[in-house]
Every structure is written in structure tokens, then in C-alpha cells.
Amino acid sequence: GDYGFGLLMELVALRDMDVNEELFLDYGTAWEDAWERHVMQWKPPPPMSHDTSTLENEPDATLSNVEHYISASDYQTKIQTEQNGILRTHAEQQTLPYPPNLQTVCQFSHTDTTHYYSITEPQPSNQQTQTVYQTVWEPTPSSKNDCLRKCRILARHVRTATATTTANQALPQSQSQTQSQTRYYYNVEILAQSTNLHPDCFNFDDENELVYVDQIPESAVMIMDVVDTRDAYLETAFRHPIGFPDGLLPKLW
After folding, report:
1. Cβ-proximal residues to 87 (8 Å cutoff; 6+ apart), any chain
2. Residue 74, Cα to own-chain centre: how many angstroms?
3. pLDDT for 93-122, tens place per residue?
């Protein structure tokens, strides 16, 4: 089937409908009873401090600790507004880690046609057991745009209208006028994964291969939710199977 589509179902009207008439689906009495119990028993989490910097230093910022939850989209906005869009390197995250439900991902296609400027075979003499691939990032065809891979940021570089310099210094506290022309690029290690990859995105053997990519633009590096950690998985979230009324599904099903 087509990649990226979930369950699809066509609904056929058995009578004429008026313009803008609203359609309803009966979830069943079991769902309704469970929802009413959830509403009666649910309690709001303690209010979160506006200073979300405490999130990164909180070891218990897990799914059970709802007051510390922040989504990837909200955190990405926080980075844009408070940190000039700068993502932390792996070294910076050792002292100021991201919340445990978030990860950095990079848009990169590791295919049989990718050009690597350096391929170092295993060297038993220096105990190197993996093949090391190194390349410079290049835009990919639109069909490869789903190749978002987990990555580890190793270095950050900044380019302005007048100069290009290495910028692994501490994150700036405020945005100056000259930074409006600033663009950030990252050198990363691509991490192997076996899920959530487009069929056109080749995987690699993480035990025998290391892949490093230089000069990935900021537009191709982002924060994303770790699998199964979005707010739907919080302990206080409501989850219950939706029931179908009798006669809704074809008899052959």
C-alpha cells in the first residue's frame, strides 16, 4: 500500500443529507461509560512553571510526571523564541540535556547512490571494527523527504552574510540585530534505526557501520517526539477502544 496512510474507510449515506449537516458516530456504551469515569476521576496536573529550563535538569521528567511534559512542537517553538533556533551539540547535552521524551532527527538519505568523500574500512591494527562513512549534506529529491533519522549533533557552525566561523561556544542569551542573517549548520552522526523509515531510505548496520554527515542546514535538523511518548501516552490521558454499532460494517468483514 501507499506509505504514510493508516486505516481508511468509506462511509455511504443511506439517505439524502442537508448542506452542512453534521454526522455522528456512536462509540458504544462501554466507551461512554469509560469516558464519564475518566471525567469524574481526572485531576489537572500542577501548573508548569513558565521557566521550562527546569525540564532539562529534572531526572524524573517522564511520562508519569505529567507536569513536566512538553511536546516536540512546543519545545521547537521554545528553541526558536528563546535560543535563536540553536540546537545543542551532544557535548552540550551532557550538562543541559533535552527532556527524555524528545530526540534530535536529521533529514538524510543513506542510499546506494550517496556520495561519500571518505570511506574508511575496518582497521584491526587500531582496533577500528566499523566502516566509517563521511559525506557532506546535499538536498534530496522530494520522494526522499521522509528520510528523517535519529542523529547525534557533534558540532555546530554559523554562517553570516560576511563570514563563516566555528560556533561551539555557549548558547547566546539574546538575539542581536546581526543574527537575523545568521544560518546554522551541523555536523552529525546518523544513528541506525529500523522503524519509521520511508521504503526508499536505506538503513545501515549500526554494529559495522558509522555514518557522519557534515554541513546539515538547520532546516534539516529538528526536535521530534520519541516513539510512544506523545501526550496520548501520558498516564492521565484517556484511551479506550471505539466500538462500532451493529450493522455499520459489511457482513463479509
Report:
1. 79, 104, 153, 156, 184, 186, 218, 221, 223
2. 12
3. 999 999 888 999 998 877 677 888 888 887
